[in-house]
Amino acid sequence: MAAPKVAVVGAGVVGLSTALCLVETCPSCSVTVLADQFSPNTTSDVAAGMLIPHTYPGTPIHVQKQWFKETFTYLFGISNSAEASEAGIHLISGWQIFKNAPKEELPFWSDVVLGFRSMSEAELQKFPQHRFGQAFTTLKCDCPPYLLWLEKRLKAAGAQMCTRKVAELWDLHSEYSVVVNCAGIGARQLAGDERLFPVRGQVLKVHAPWVKNFIRDGDGLTYIYPGVHRVTLGGTREEGSWNLSPHPGTTKAIFDRCCTLEPSLRGAQDIEVKVGLRPSRRCVRLQREVLSQGGVKLPVVHNYGHGSGGFSMHRGTAKEAARLVGECIAALQGSLSRAKL
Ligand SMILES: Cc1cc2nc3c(=O)[nH]c(=O)nc-3n(C[C@H](O)[C@H](O)[C@H](O)COP(=O)(O)OP(=O)(O)OC[C@H]3O[C@@H](n4cnc5c(N)ncnc54)[C@H](O)[C@@H]3O)c2cc1C
Ligand SMILES: *[C@@H]1O[C@H](CO)[C@@H](O)[C@H](O)[C@H]1NC(C)=O
Q: If we measure between CA atoms, which residue out of 307, 97, 95 comes closest to residue 201?
């Protein structure tokens, strides 16, 4: 069989990392990334890129832990290499703080991040309104640099990048033997999946290079995530909203909430406001499906619905998606050799 042609729809962190796993595990595959938006115009560019998982109620915890661990291990390797600055990956220490005792004393990811422990009384003095806290070291991706680094790796491995809006996955059947759907919130339309819904997030990216530690309120709403160049201040979680325009009142409210946790942010400069739609679902959809029309078949692998945790989980889900593509190719080769007999 000629080199199987695989199309990956989507150029956010999920599509690019899935395409990279594919070229790594299937060197004979010809991989094309198709997307209507590339960095810096995807949801993934808006994200803070912190590796702190959110729980998907519909996915078994041991699976989520495996995805997170694979992602953490992969990025930890990059952070310890000469690639770290170009890829925008760095270790970061900080605090997750709570007004009331946290629901889980030990979250499922506590032994994957480094040095997870309860905060000391002295540390808690920084946060007079909070009574409980967890300190740990995790990793952060600076989003546009990491996406550009993935694109560069893909091009070096011979993958094609193509700007194109896909109206229907079936439209790709005459050009590709397998299609991978990593369309983020776009999958609602592409896969006709009404269980996928947007959770709007507005954030500020500011210049405040003296802020070195992350701070996350356990309510998940207010956070301060320092990156290599900019600090991300958040945020909002608005279920069902498709509005991509920044809301000025929300910008002020986010800034005030963050200054309450970190008063030195009053001196922040060059405030930029961004909005993104988290592709949310009870669980990530990571499965094979065969589309068929008039006896013609198109194997599809879905990999979407990462919600608030696309960066935290991307490498683990990309590996699994690449494995499923391998199964599709094996099935195609099997049916071809049967046809020859
Ligand atoms: C404010 C905010 C902060 C966040 N912070 C974090 C964080 O700190 N840590 C974390 O882990 N996660 C975070 N997230 C979540 C994270 O951003 C998402 O989970 C992740 O970006 C999803 O990636 P994706 O590749 O699935 O989607 P996207 O980045 O949206 O990419 C989808 C791609 O599909 C393409 N596409 C869609 N439809 C079509 C079509 N019909 N034809 C062609 N192309 C199509 C798009 O153009 C795009 O290229 C945050 C999200 C927001 C909004
Ligand atoms: C991002 O969007 C802007 C504005 O629409 C456009 O000018 C630019 O070419 C886009 N960038 C990429 C890489 O597609």
A: 307
